[in-house]
Amino acid sequence: MRIGFDAKRAFMNYSGLGNYSRSVIESLAQYYSDENYFLFTPDENLKLFDRILIRKNIELIKSNSFSKFYWRSFSQMNEWNKLNLDIYHGLSSELPFGLSRTKAKKIVTIHDVIYKKSPEYYSVVDRTIYDYKTKHACLNADKIICISEQTRQEVIRYYKVAENKIKVIHPSLPDHINRMISINKTEEVKAKYNLPEKFILYTGTIERRKNLLTVIKALHKMGENAPALMAVGKATDYLNEIKKYLTSSAPDLKVSFIHNADNEDLNVIYSQAHIFIYTSLHEGFGIPLIEAAAHSVPSITTKDSCMEEAAGGGAITIDSKSVNETALAIEKLMNDSMLHKQLSAMAIAHAANFNTKRLADELMKTYASL
């Protein structure tokens, strides 16, 4: 088969959609090397994804238009027809317009519809654009892939899509999550970020939806028994609110923020964590929970959400809005060594399900069915 991908995120995004796009492309190119793959991107950061281009079954297709936006959204079908594509896969919840000009089968991966479920986290402009693009993709795709069962249910609810048009395929672990870490690298990262001997870890953008302030209030409630917290991720204005609370109400809490950790450093930080906490209010899946599980780190996460799919049996689930429940869960995992050991074993066993071979097999089976 001749398979095209919307590869913009693979070349331009360092995490999230970028990790997903790179995992899809690399796993297929590795395990199904007899197929031909074409990566469509208006821009590329070859330092981010240069290794993929050494494969003989990969070809990079770049914009030759005066407008990169126009090429990506409207005119790249001309290239599809020249290349005689069998499949085109939009990896980030969107498909180009003008699809009637091509015979290629269209697939789209939809990661979440949080802008519909919780519009308060988005500007009117952003949620209007996301809604328009997702609606177009749902109407025009021959098959929709959702990264979680929760996202599947929400796509059916908000876009009235037939159930048999959607398939759930969970993401795989990003390739930078690797348990093989040298002692020298571990010591380097521990010193670089002044990592405590025992700490709770949070990773992800520090934004209101991720609910980090509730975690900090729970630690404050624990008083002198509160463990250290390392929060790793991009800052937003929400961080100012958190720091204001720390200064005014909890100056003695041991909370550190890291905004510049690269993937190698992050891998080491996961390996050193005692507990991972990810009590986000809304997610499409929750890949950080899998990343922590791969290092046998037990988690605390949000009950009755897609994050239970991501965490499996290696987590305590709570009402993420409850300061009291959050504090009790932390205390339990800090003090109950037997429970910690049991959840650690369940976490790493669960993480083994999210390998790239499984992702490649499920995707290729979906392509072949069209």
Would you mind describing this structure in some detail?
Helix content is 45%, strand content 16%. With 370 residues, it is an alpha/beta fold. It has two domains: 185 residues, Glycogen Phosphorylase B (Rossmann fold); 169 residues, Glycogen Phosphorylase B (Rossmann fold), CATH 3.40.50.2000. The strands form two sheets. The chain has a seven-stranded parallel beta sheet with strand order 3-2-1-4-5-6-7. It has a six-stranded parallel beta sheet with strand order 10-9-8-11-12-13, with helices on both faces. Helix 2 crosses helix 17. The chain starts with a strand and ends with a helix.
- Strand order, sheet with most strands: 3-2-1-4-5-6-7
Number of helices: 17
Quantity of strands, as a count = 13
Q: What composes the largest sheet?
A: 7 strands, parallel
Write down the domain tally.
2
Subunit organisation of the chains:
single chain
Low-pLDDT parts are none
Summarize the amount of helix as a percent range: 40-55%
What structural class should be given to the helix and strand makeup?
A: alpha/beta
CATH top level of the largest domain is Alpha Beta
- C-alpha end-to-end distance: 12 Å
What is the CATH architecture term of the largest domain? 3-Layer(aba) Sandwich
Mean pLDDT: 92
